[in-house]
Amino acid sequence: MSDDPSAAGLQLGQATPLPASPEAAQLDRVPNPHADTDYLARFTAPEFTSLCPVTGQPDFATLVIDYVPGAWLVESKSLKLYLGAFRNHGAFHEDCTVGIGRRLTALLEPRWLRIGGYWYPRGGIPIDVFWQTGEPLKGIWLPEQGVAPYRGRG
C-alpha cells in the first residue's frame, strides 16, 4: 500500500470542496496504530452550525466527540468537512447530534463513543443533546467535556 493518502481514496493531502450535504460527505477512517490499547480520543467543534428546518435560521453549537477507538480512527480532515456540510442542512438539534454519533459509530465501530451537543438558545431555550453507545469503559480517563451548563455562554 502506498504512503500517499490520496492513493487510498482519502481526502487527506488534496484539495477537497465542502460537501453539499452531510449525506454526500465522505467520512474517512484510517488504521489505529494502537488498536491493542484502550485510550480516549476527543474532537471539539466549537463553531458547528446547521439550519433550523422550520425557519431556515442558523443554529450554533459546540460539539464534543469522545471515543475509544478499536481498529479504526476517524481521519480529522474528513470529519471537519463532514461537520461543515451541516451549514446548509436543515435539522433539529437532536437529529444533528444523534445522527453524527450514529454515523461515526457505524464507520468506526469504536469500543465506546459519546457526543455532546451544546446548542446556543433559540427562542430563549438552549437544547443540549447527549448520546453515547453504552457505559464508558473501565479504566479510561474520561474528562468532563469542558462546556459549562448554559448561563449565557460566550
Radius of gyration: 16 Å
- The computed structural class is alpha+beta
Q: What is the number of domains?
A: 1
* The named CATH superfamily: GTP cyclohydrolase I, C-terminal domain/NADPH-dependent 7-cyano-7-deazaguanine reductase, N-terminal domain
Might you state the CATH topology name? GTP Cyclohydrolase I, domain 2
Read across the widest sheet, the strand sequence of neighbours is: 2-3-5-6
Low-pLDDT ranges: 1-6
Main location: cytoplasm
Catalytic activity: 7-aminomethyl-7-carbaguanine + 2 NADP(+) = 7-cyano-7-carbaguanine + 2 NADPH + 3 H(+)
Keywords: Cytoplasm, NADP, Oxidoreductase, Queuosine biosynthesis
Subcellular location: Cytoplasm
Describe this structure in words.
This protein has 154 residues and is of the alpha+beta class. It has a single domain (18-132), classed as 2-Layer Sandwich (GTP Cyclohydrolase I, domain 2), CATH 3.30.1130. The chain has helices at residues 76-84, 93-108; strands spanning 29-31, 41-51, 58-68, 72-74, 112-119, 128-132. Strands 2-3-5-6 form a 4-stranded antiparallel sheet, covered by helices on one side. Strand 5 (112-119) and strand 6 form a beta hairpin. The protein is globular, with a radius of gyration of 16 Å. Keywords: Cytoplasm, NADP, Oxidoreductase, Queuosine biosynthesis. Residues 1-31 are annotated as: Disordered. GO terms for molecular function: preQ1 synthase activity.
